Amino acid sequence: MSNTFGSVFRATTFGESHGGGVGVVIDGCPPRLELSEADIQSDLDRRRPGQSSLVTQRQEADTAEILSGVFGGYTTGTPIGILVRNTDAKPGAYEHLKDVYRPSHADFTYNAKYGFRNWTGGGRASARETIGRVAAAAVARKLLRVGAGIEVLAWVRSVHEHVAEVDAATVSLDDVEAGPTRCPDVAVAERIAEAIEDARRDGDSLGGVVECVCRNVPAGLGEPVFDKLDARLGAAMMSLPAAKGIEIGTGFAATTMTGREHNDPFVPSVSGVDVRTNHSGGIQGGISNRADIVFRVAFKPTSTIASEQDTVTRSGEATTLEAKGRHDPCVLPRAVPMVEAMALLTLADHWLMQRSVDVLAPLLELP
Q1: Residue 262, CB half-sphere, CA atoms under 13 Å: how many?
Q2: Three-state DSSP class for 274?
Q3: If you count DSSP H runs as helices and E runs as strands, how many of each does the chain have, helices first?
Q4: What three-state secondary structure class fits 312?
Q5: How far is CA 266 from CA 186, 228, 274, 294, in A?
Q6: For the chain, what is the radius of gyration of the CA atoms?
Q7: What is the pLDDT of residue 54?
Q8: Which of 62, 159, 295, 361 is the least buried, fewest Cβ under 10 Å from its Cβ?
């Protein structure tokens, strides 16, 4: 089982939803980066359960403990170990799922692959695994901010049929965090909150779209041919629980445009070259072009719902299931920091790769 993301800046997550704890080991972070547990905690607080009535009511503080790789408040260049202990685990609450497969969940497929599965909350398939990703990304966030001024911000663009109008160029963290839905469009946010509450009361769930912008990304990030920046972002986002699709820039809407409409004209700027439009979403030929990187990730409705569904047991006998326990009726509000996390990890990895090119380039100039 692969549990590591990245080539230079590498994050290896560990732990299960209802085990002793979850966390991450980070390899490749440069030394002398000022880092504290508070830097990590702010992002974990945005991901944690129990934030509002719109999400799972599991009560976890998700307190980060730095176990290694930091000395005197600075990274040492050695592996950074971060642990978050589970304090509200209730494995017994999932006893009724021991021999039953939840529809559209990872229960059957994990069992098909390994012949065995952790049925307490989904084990590694639980979104609780993403704590390690968010913790590692908090380190990446500080590295990118200090090293390159890069900013990554995501928000809820839509839930079910309710779609917000948000300007990716100007939306701020305060706008996103103004309400529990993490939708900056106030009017739409109210309708989203009502829809999620209605779904919860009905024992159902909802899906939607998270949009993300990466600002101040320098030109040149991305590795041809198979490690294109958009390809790596796609793999990163599709590794998230419940993610079902990603589109970058104009995305699928580009199929209704002509080349003349979709192409982004180059124009002179203070930095030398810029683009007048950004249908490409900041990436051309798999490499960043200095424009904002803008993309959207689609998330399906939460698989575990409190309504009766047809399913089968491990022995193949037909049965019905009405799931119990604490579940998100909609993953979108808590998916926002997860999307940011995978974007940050991807950018940190590619930024460090590009640093080696930048250092060597002057030494290898053509005559």
Answers
A1: 15
A2: strand
A3: 8, 18
A4: strand
A5: 35, 21, 6, 18
A6: 21
A7: 78
A8: 361
Mean pLDDT across the stretch 32-36?
Answer: 97
Is 296 within 8 Å of 251 (Cβ atoms)? yes
Strands 208-215 and 74-75 turn out to be: unpaired
Q: Are 8 and 353 in contact (CB under 8 A)?
A: yes
Q: What is the pTM of this model?
A: 0.95
Cβ proximity of 21 and 85 under 8 Å = yes
Lowest average pLDDT, out of 70-79, 118-127, 219-228, goes to 118-127
Task: Count the Cβ atoms, other than its own, within 10 Å of residue 160.
Answer: 18
For the beta sheet containing 293-299, the strands, ordered from the edge strand earlier in sequence to the opposite edge, are 162-163, 151-159, 208-215, 293-299, 243-248
- Identify the CA nearest to 317 among candidates 126, 171, 101: 101
Taking a C-beta distance cutoff of 8 angstroms, is the pair 54, 181 a contact? yes
Distance between CA 277 and CA 295 in Å, rounded?
15
Report the DSSP beta bridge partners of residue 318.
312
CA distance 156 to 332: 6
Rounded to 5 degrees, φ, ψ at 169 are -75, -25
* Cβ–Cβ < 8 Å for 303, 312: no
Give the whole-angstrom CA distance, residue 267 versus residue 225. 27
Strand, coil or helix: 238: helix
pLDDT digit string (tens) for 181-237?
A: 999 999 999 999 999 999 999 999 999 999 999 999 999 999 989 999 999 999 999
One-letter identity of residue 56: T
